[in-house]
Write a structure and sequence with these properties.
Strand content of chain A: under 5%
Order of helices and strands of chain A: HHHHHHHHEEHHHHHHHHHHHHHH
Low-confidence stretches of chain B: 66-71
Number of strands of chain B: 0
Distance between the termini of chain A: 45 Å
Radius of gyration of chain B: 24 Å
Largest sheet of chain A: 2 strands, antiparallel
Strand content of chain B: under 5%
Distance between the termini of chain B: 53 Å
Largest sheet of chain B: none
Shape of chain A: globular
Shape of chain B: flat
Strand order of the largest sheet of chain A: 1-2
Number of strands of chain A: 2
Oligomer: heterodimer
Number of helices of chain B: 5
Radius of gyration of chain A: 22 Å
Helix content of chain B: over 70%
Number of domains of chain B: 2
Low-confidence stretches of chain A: 226-230
Structural class of chain A: mainly alpha
Helix content of chain A: over 70%
Chain lengths: 507, 156
């Protein structure tokens, strides 16, 4: 373990990688504070920046962008009462109240410190847990992989926001898009309609930039109203104001610990991720608190717990990616795309065949959390200024970056046109109330799922029972069934939380 | 309005599913013991058609919400026009990128969007447009080693 960490740090502490991690954290936070652009859109827009880098550096930078974007969302939640993305909705409840009481600095400070601690813990556990899981993952055959992917897709669909039926449709559409190109087994062309550009399938970066980048820009061009400057709470001007005092630390210590553990465990689950973990962490803190009536009125625990949870969930989300090669959320799906673009298939063999990549990425996450803390505490003023920039000014810049990004993939201007087409698709999806996230996960998992299903059926000579007779796949499919019937249970559970925490009044 | 949107989108996706079903049947479907290239797309197409049909049914069966009639046709027209400009400009950008070059096309793209679509002042347009394009060029070409077409400006 120590030798592995030493290998990892020797790679992640190289000058280039530290700079790239820094740039990733900075750009991630920069874009994360922009309204409507969450971590998925941020990673999608900046994905092509990493094309020319080697694999380890790419993943390091993209991971930095991911947790930078998470923190960017926290800034807008606390100061502007606008959640940067869904997982920061909970932070907004007490965070904004703290800001109104003149404690914005404490809220942002504890969020930054809590995130750093949680991220560090998550990284350590990831380094311990992932290689062990990778060994067990070698026991996974095609039926187990198929069952796990079905579970992942089901969780993303059922635990996301919006209509479940529409989310299932988007997931299925993503699976359908994954079949465009050549059949993975026989090499037969499918659904290319004679276009050479589709021979290798739809490009994930083009699609992601279009749907999440340009699509969001088009949607916000007509739907976002400019914020009044009066709505913004005064941001902390001095570094001192961002440092939590003894009482803040005393109140936050246990929430940070609990949030860290919960976040990691939930982040590991396919479809789990930052959103669920932040909600569960908030509900847990309220349950454990001796003074639950303080929640919703500026309780620091209401910021410390969820923020730690959502950052720890980021580390947890890397577990299925690095050990099984299965993304547990959209951002991980984009990272799978980044791996494949460099000709590496993430999976259980990555620990043995690419130890430099594996340990380099894990140790860089620790460095990234420290950089984020160093970056965000003094640069908060800069990021807050970005919040004030009107979207009308930023939209053409985002379109330009997406256009350059698309062109840089193959040097083909047709990719720029494709990106715009996907942008229109993304805009229409939002207009007709379809969530775009499941389409991306379905797209990445589609070819893998197809291969796993076909191989399983060949193994069983056509019998579907193979999925139910093997213990691991049976367990995973049972979990899928549980998730499917869970919405009713979840509705009752959330209703219970609402009555305890007063969610309905605060959001 | 939300019911109409759901019916419209449901029909659209049903047609997509149907087309996919027909195309996958042209590819060989095979059997469960020997799945062929059309097997998986066939399954997905059936799912898409089933879910779209469910969406259409739900939209028809659900009671229509009592919506206030708001005269927002001007706003809708303005929105569609704005989006159309974005789309046309980006398409033109893609078409002219290689011939005219990255620097010129990008500057024009940003200036036209900021000045004529978003109605910003010339001061803001130029203060944002030029630095943005130049910084992007330096970042992508010199730091990331990405090739961007020079077009008419060959000496950069």
């Amino acid at each position: 373990m120590i030798e592995n960490l030493a290998l990892g740090f020797s790679i992640s502490l190289s000058f280039n990688n530290v700079i790239l991690c820094f740039i990733g954290c900075f750009l991630g936070t920069f874009i994360g504070v922009l309204p409507g652009l969450g971590p998925t859109a941020t990673v999608a827009i900046l994905l092509t920046l990493t094309y020319k880098l080697d694999l380890t550096s790419s993943i390091i930078m993209l991971a930095g962008i991911y947790y930078g974007a998470q923190y960017g969302g926290t800034i807008t939640s606390v100061l502007l009462k606008i959640p940067g993305e869904v997982s920061t909705v909970v932070t907004m409840i007490d965070g904004h109240q703290m800001a109104l009481q003149g404690r914005a600095g404490k809220a942002l400070g504890i969020a930054a410190f809590g995130s750093c601690i949680a991220g560090t813990f998550g990284t350590v556990v990831l380094g311990l847990f992932a290689p062990i899981l990778a060994n067990y993952a070698l026991m996974f055959g095609p039926p187990e992989y198929a069952a796990l992917m079905i579970l992942g897709l089901t969780m993303v669909v059922y635990l996301g926001s919006g209509s479940v039926t529409k989310a299932i449709l988007m997931g299925a559409l993503g699976l359908a898009l994954g079949t465009v190109g050549t059949d993975p087994v026989t090499g037969v062309e499918r659904f290319t309609f004679g276009f050479d550009v589709l021979y290798e399938g739809v490009n994930i970066a083009v699609m992601a930039m279009g749907i999440f980048g340009i699509g969001e820009v088009l949607y916000m061009a007509v739907n976002v109203e400019e914020r009044s400057k009066r709505d913004m709470v005064r941001y902390p001007g001095r570094l001192r104001e961002l440092l939590p005092d003894k009482k803040d630390w005393k109140n936050s210590a246990l929430p940070i610990s609990r949030g860290t553990l919960l976040g990691f465990l939930l982040g590991v689950l396919p479809g789990g991720g930052a959103t669920i973990s932040s909600f569960v962490a908030y509900a847990t803190e309220k349950k454990f608190s001796r003074h639950p009536e303080r929640f919703g009125k500026g309780a620091i625990e209401g910021v410390a717990g969820p923020e730690s949870a959502n950052n720890s969930a980021v580390s947890g989300a890397f577990v299925p990616l690095l050990t099984l090669g299965i993304p547990s959320n959209c951002v991980m799906a984009l990272l799978v795309g980044a791996f494949m673009l460099h000709g590496v298939t993430p999976g259980p063999l990555i620990v043995k065949e690419y130890p430099a990549v594996f340990w380099g990425v894990i140790t860089s996450m620790y460095i990234g959390n420290v950089i984020l803390l160093i970056l965000n505490v003094p640069l908060i003023k800069v990021f807050v200024k970005i919040c004030e920039v009107p979207m009308a000014l930023l939209s053409p810049v985002i379109i330009l970056i997406c256009g350059i990004g698309a062109y840089s993939i193959n040097g083909n201007p047709v990719d720029v046109l494709q990106t715009m087409i996907w942008g229109v698709v993304g805009y229409l999806m939002r207009t007709f109330d379809y969530e775009p996230a499941p389409i991306l996960l379905g797209f990445v998992l589609g070819p893998l799922l197809e291969q796993a299903v076909r191989q399983s059926l060949i193994m069983s000579q056509g019998s579907m029972l193979i999925f139910f007779l093997r213990p691991i796949s049976m367990t995973l499919l049972s979990a899928t069934l549980l998730v499917t019937v869970a919405p009713v249970i979840l509705k009752l559970f959330m209703k219970g939380i609402s009555s305890i925490s007063g969610f309905d009044n605060k959001i | 309005m939300s019911n109409k949107k759901d019916i419209l989108s449901g029909v659209f996706y049903f047609i997509i599913g149907l087309c996919m079903l027909m195309l996958s049947m042209k590819l060989e479907i095979g059997s469960t013991s020997v799945p062929a290239p059309g097997f998986f797309p066939f399954l997905i197409a059936v799912i898409i058609m089933g879910i779209s049909f469910t969406i259409i049914l739900k939209a028809i069966i659900l009671k229509k919400d009592k919506e206030k009639k708001v005269n927002n046709s001007e706003k809708v027209k303005g929105s569609i026009l704005k989006i159309s400009y974005y789309i046309i400009l980006t398409i033109l950008y893609g078409i002219t990128l290689e011939r005219i070059g990255f620097l010129i096309t990008s500057i024009f793209l940003i200036i036209i969007i900021l000045k004529y679509v978003e109605k910003m002042s010339w001061k803001i347009t130029l203060l944002v447009g030029f630095p943005c394009v130049i910084v992007s060029y330096i970042l992508f070409v010199y730091f990331l080693g990405v090739y961007l077409p020079k077009g008419l400006i060959k000496w950069v």
